[in-house]
Design goal:
Layout (H helix, E strand, L loop, with lengths): L6 H8 L9 H39 L1 H6 L2 H14 L9 H24 L3 H19 L2 H29 L3 H18 L6 H15 L3 H18 L3 H12 L6 H17 L4 H10 L1 H7 L5 H12 L4 H12 L1 H15 L6 H9 L2 H12 L2 H6 L2 H11 L3 H12 L13 H18 L2
Helix pairs in contact: 2-4, 4-5, 6-7, 7-8, 8-9, 8-10, 9-10, 9-11, 10-12, 11-13, 11-14, 12-13, 12-23, 13-15, 15-19, 16-18, 17-21, 18-19
């Protein structure tokens, strides 16, 4: 039993805890808990005070503008206000208060990031002006800072105004719309860098979309990033891609964004087949009428024929010439009979004509290869025989020589499926199946 002279026991009785029914052990434990809580509260306040000092030091090092943009200036203000608020009772400070300050500072940092994206270089420019003004403060007084900042603001404003004026002259839009477009282009330029592109690529894309696809200024801006990405992926200029996209639109009801994604998928398939995508895509743009006439399944039949033609050293124009010649039935049959007579062997293009009518241009090329023979036979022909054989299949003699040369070397269309195209076509088929599933949901 503790003696009544024990100071702790006396404190226990004076506190009224005994009268409240508490034991001394319970009272002692409660006091310990309260002391720990108070210590935690003191530590929380001290941490906030230290943070305030650190922030103040950081502002002096960074400068006012940078501190404003990255939230340091706001953090200093909020900490000072909170410390003043709890001066009478430190228990008023909570962890929620600290978290609230952090959240506001994070929002300010986002704003600063956006400013840097819209006006890259402006922060460093202003900081340089501010440093110079601070250095001159001792010589010219506080007015130097105001003059320097005003000069910097004027320079930025004049540059932005010039961009707006140039945009208005080019597009004939209002000042408000020009300002919005310039700001949007700054942000698009920043996004473009993630794909290895520049702001000029975005502007070139917008010009092609407006001029060749008849889009509005805003539609061109919204489509420009996807357009520029596709242009780079397919090796086409903006003008060439706009023609390719226009051709694709003529046979599809899909949106332009979807078609651009499809073009990139097609380019990947063409590359997988060992052909440069830019060559086939440019062929499509150049032979727009042929594509529109014969395209099926999103144009894959023409793309496959274009790939096969390129592997034979020919352009898609040769495929178009062969198809048109075969479908001129009377003339085609006459030339077929003439070639058969001169060569002394049967030339039968009936199957090729059927395939051309059905839009199977890849099948047409395979059938033509079966009929023209090999390089050894071609070398034995005289000039009249070569001309007759070339006319019968709708090409010139130079193109015919490429056909027979690559046919002898084991060209991809020598018969049966093209093994180089199979993996890529399987991938495309899977993508199409996924699109159909998504469309049906």
């Amino acid at each position: 039993m503790a003696k009544r002279s024990d100071p702790k026991l006396q404190e226990f009785y004076r506190s009224g805890a005994a009268a409240a029914g508490m034991t001394q052990a319970q009272y002692t434990k409660e006091i310990q808990v309260q002391n720990e809580l108070y210590k935690e509260q003191v530590d929380l306040v001290k941490a906030l005070q230290k943070k305030g000092k650190d922030v103040t030091t950081k502002i002096a090092e960074q400068g006012k503008l940078q501190s404003y943009l990255n939230g340091t200036k706001l953090e200093q203000k909020l900490i000072a206000e909170k410390l003043e608020e709890i001066e009478g009772n430190i228990n008023d400070l909570t962890q929620e208060d600290i978290d609230g300050i952090k959240a506001q500072v994070a929002q300010q940092k986002k704003l600063g990031t956006a400013v840097n994206q819209i006006l890259p270089g402006a922060t460093s420019f202003f900081t340089g002006i501010e440093d110079a003004a601070e250095g001159m403060r001792g010589l010219l007084g506080p007015a130097a800072l105001a003059v320097a900042v005003f000069t910097a603001l004027a320079k930025i404003a004049l540059g932005f105004a010039k961009n707006i004026t140039d945009t208005r002259k080019e597009l004939g839009i209002s000042a408000v719309e020009a300002a919005k477009l310039n700001t949007q282009n700054r942000l698009l330029g920043y996004q473009a860098k993630l794909y290895g592109l520049e702001l000029e690529d975005i502007k070139s894309a917008q010009a092609a979309i407006r001029n060749d696809l008849g889009a509005s200024v805003q539609e061109a801006a919204n489509l420009s990033l996807n357009f520029a990405r596709t242009s780079a992926a397919t090796g086409q200029t903006s003008e060439e891609l706009s023609k390719t996209l226009a051709v694709m639109e003529s046979i599809s009801s899909a949106s332009r964004d979807v078609l651009l994604n499809q073009i990139r998928t097609n380019a990947a398939m063409i590359e997988a087949a060992g052909v440069a995508p830019a060559l086939v895509m440019k062929d499509i743009a150049t032979n727009a009428e042929f594509f529109a006439q014969f395209a099926k399944d999103g144009g894959m039949n023409i793309i496959n024929a274009g790939v096969a033609a390129r592997k034979l050293g020919l352009e898609m124009s040769a495929v178009a010439s062969i198809s048109e010649s075969l479908l001129n039935f009377e003339s085609s049959i006459e030339k077929q009979m003439e070639a058969s007579l001169l060569l002394g062997r049967q030339i039968n293009l009936d199957r090729a004509r059927q395939l051309a009518l059905a839009g199977d241009q890849e099948g047409v090329m395979k059938e033509i290869l079966k009929q023209v023979g090999g390089e050894a036979e071609f070398n034995r022909m005289n000039v009249i025989q070569r001309k007759a054989l070339a006319d019968s299949v709708g090409v010139n003699v130079e193109q015919l020589s490429r056909l027979v040369r690559n046919n002898t070397a084991g060209a991809a269309m020598g018969g049966g499926a093209n093994p180089l195209l199979a993996p890529a076509q399987e991938t495309v088929a899977q993508i199409r199946g996924l699109r159909k599933d998504m469309a049906g949901r």
